[in-house]
Write a structure and sequence with these properties.
about 150 residues, alpha+beta, Double Stranded RNA Binding Domain, 4-stranded mixed β-sheet, 3 helices, 4 strands, about 35% helix, about 35% strand, flat
Length: about 150
């Protein structure tokens, strides 16, 4: 009986602590009013789409972001015959964060990933697009954490 009482008390105690994860709340504490793109490409379009949900929420901190992104796909390793074994994708994003028309921070976020070559080029292209999406999600998380800490 005491064990059941302890378990019930533990759930009630932990349930009343008002824990809320950062990324699940709808009140972000900041807002992104405008995103200026320096070089328009597929990466910047995906980043802008991901940042749209942070538009118009926080009235106390309103940011303008200047964005530049590029992707490099390099050969990381070859076999003895000269055939490509592994690739490296490197995504570099430069952000300038403005608040009230003054530069607040300048941040460069770099993410990379290595993967093996595949003889099926369709599967390789599809896998590469998944990698791009995952790397962009990591860049967005880093940027949002940077905006939270500002």
């Amino acid at each position: 009986m005491k064990k059941k009482f302890k378990i019930i008390f533990l759930f009630l105690f932990l349930g009343a602590c008002d824990y809320q994860p950062i990324f699940s709340s709808k009140d972000f504490g900041f807002s992104i009013s405008d995103i200026e793109i320096k070089n328009k490409n597929n990466l910047t379009n995906q980043i802008v789409r991901s940042l749209k949900k942070y538009n118009g929420f926080g009235e106390n901190r309103v940011y303008t972001i200047e964005l530049s992104a590029k992707k490099n796909k390099d050969v990381a390793a070859k076999d003895s015959k000269g055939n490509i074994k592994t690739y490296r994708i490197n995504i570099v994003c430069d952000f300038k964060i403005y608040e009230k028309n003054e530069i607040l921070k300048s941040k460069k976020i770099t993410k990379n990933f290595m993967f093996n070559n595949d003889s099926d080029k369709f599967k390789l292209r599809k896998y590469e697009s998944k990698i791009d999406k995952n790397l962009i999600d990591e860049v967005i998380k880093d940027l949002i954490l940077e905006l939270y800490s500002s």
